[in-house]
Amino acid sequence: MTQNIAQLKDELTQAIAAANDLQKLEEARVAALGKKGRITDLMKTLGNLAPEERKDFGAAINLLKDEVTALIEKQEAGLKKQAMAEKLSRETLDITLPIRPEAKGTIHPISQTMDELISIFGSMGFQLDEGPDIEDDWHNFTALNFPPGHPAREMHDTFYLPDDADEKGEAAKKLLRTHTSTVQIRHMMGKKPPFKMICMGRVYRSDYDMTHTPVFHQIEGLVIDKNINMGHLKGCLMDFLRAFFENDKLGVRLRPSFFPFTEPSAEMDIGCSRKNGELKIGEGDDWLEILGCGMVHGNVLKNCGIDPDEYQGFAFGMGIERIAMLKYGIPDLRTFFESDTRWLDHYGFNPLDRPNRATGGK
Ligand code: DAH
Questions:
Q1: Ligand 1, atom 4: nearest CA belongs to which residue?
Q2: Domain that residue 29 falls in
Q3: How many domains does the chain divide into?
Q4: What pTM was computed for the model?
Q5: Is 316 in the pocket of ligand 1 (CB under 6 A)?
Q6: In this structure, are 276 and 326 located in the same domain?
Q7: Nearest CA residue ID for atom 13, ligand 1
Q8: Is 357 among the domain residues?
Q9: What is the mean pLDDT of residues 106-119?
C-alpha cells in the first residue's frame, strides 16, 4: 500500500511538472483529484480495509492529496507568472519610435493661429472669454453705442434671423453677430473692473469676394481699469504684434479712425515693403492696416453699468484669417473655408509642433 502511494506520488509529480500550460495543468489536476481521479479512486478503496489499516492509509492519502494540491498550486503560479511575462514582452511599446509615416492629419491654420493668440495674450495676463454666435440687436449694436438707425449699422451687412421681434421690440431682434465686440458687453455686464480679456470666434457678414467671406474669425481684446490710457493700448498691441510676427523691430503706428464704441478710435498699421508687388512684413517704409482699436466709449461703459468717470480702458479687434494669411503667406481668404485636403496638406501644421512657429506648411 505505502509502496503504491509513493509510486503514485512520483507519477503525479511528473505529470504536474510536465504540464507546461494552464490547460494541461488542469487536465493533470482532474486526473489526480477529479471525481474519477487516481487519488479519489484510492480514497474509494478505504471502505474495503480493516479499521486499523484504514487509519494509516487514510492519513497517507490525505497527505498525498495535500502534497499534490500544493504542487499544482506552485506549478500554476509559475505558469501564470510566465504567461504574464510573455504578455508584457509581447505588448511593449517603444515610445521613442518615430510616428507612423501614414499619420496625415494637420492642424488648420485658423486653429494654429488661435493657439498662438491664446499663448501670447495668455502670457500677457489676458483671460479668455466667449459669447454666442446668435446674438440680439442690443448686444451687437445698441450696447456698443450704435444708436437705432445709425448709418454705421449699415456697414455691417448683417444677417438677421426671422423672429418675433415685432412683439419683443427692436432690441431683441436676433442676428448672427457681425463682430466679436459683443463679448465685450457680455464680459462687463453686471461685473466690476478690472477686466483684461480676449475672446475669439466666428463672425458673419453678407459679403463674398477675394477678401470677404460670409463667415470669418475675429479676436477681440478689452482692458479696463482705473488708469488705462492710449499709451497702454499702443504698448500692448505693439508687444503683441512683435511676438506674433516674431520680429522685435516690427514698426507700428496708430492712425485716427472711427468706431461707434471707441473714442478716440484708431487703426494700427505695421511696417512693410511692397517692392515689385511682393509684400514683406517688417521691412521697408510702407504701412499695412492690421487692426481696429480705441479707448472704450463712455456710453459703452455706462450701458454695462460701469462708471466712466472711475474706469476707462481700451479695446481692439482683428481678423484672424487676415493675420494668418500675412504670417503664413496664404494668398486667398476663400480657401480657408473650402475644406480642400490638398490645401490643408500644404498650409496645415504638424499636430505635434508647438503653437508659435516661424514658418507655415509642413
Ligand atoms: N468690431 C470692429 C469690426 O468688426 C473691430 C474693432 C475695432 C474692435 C475697434 C474693437 C475696437 O474692439 O476697439 O470691424
A1: 179
A2: 2-90
A3: 2
A4: 0.71
A5: yes
A6: yes
A7: 293
A8: no
A9: 96
